[in-house]
Task: structure prediction
Amino acid sequence: MPAFIVTLGSMTYLRGTAYSLLDGQPLVASDLAYRGIGNGTVAGIPTPVVVMVVVYIAFWFLLERTRFGRHVYAVGGNIEAARLAGINTKRVLLLVYTIAGAAAGLAGIIFSARVLSAQPTAGTNYELDAIAAVVLGGTALAGGRGRVLGTLVGALIIGVLSNGLVLMNVPFFYQLIIKGVVIVLAVALDSLRQYNRKG
Result:
């Protein structure tokens, strides 16, 4: 089955499960120490920033300096060619999806710690921000090309854009329009770059 469709389907039914378990109400955390994960500091640096830097370095090393990282790029570029080259593509895909799920879980923990509650509506439309960040960072949607540094830059651009729109009191639905346009333009530019390389 196409991974993208399975991901969307899983997201939908898990979001529905969260609604049903919480009856649509937020689950408030009573442990104030939990707040430190999302609002604390380490040597004067916000804890989420420290976690981001550690995760970034770990993923950079994993993708740029290990055999597994080369296998990830190979499978992303052409899964059949990677299989014929002797790469265990099923194992690589399983590990990639597991790592992505763990990273999403970590982000969920930090988010809930910042607001001291677990909300069934939390993270709505964040998938659009994630797609926009990786595309703006130069990752090819077709796979096989992209860098962690580019994704970090793309995430910073989306973060600045989102915060700027909020500070400018832009209505939420206009924010969605702007982000959607940014995603389409980023994909269009990426497609144009690939076309020029082939031409």
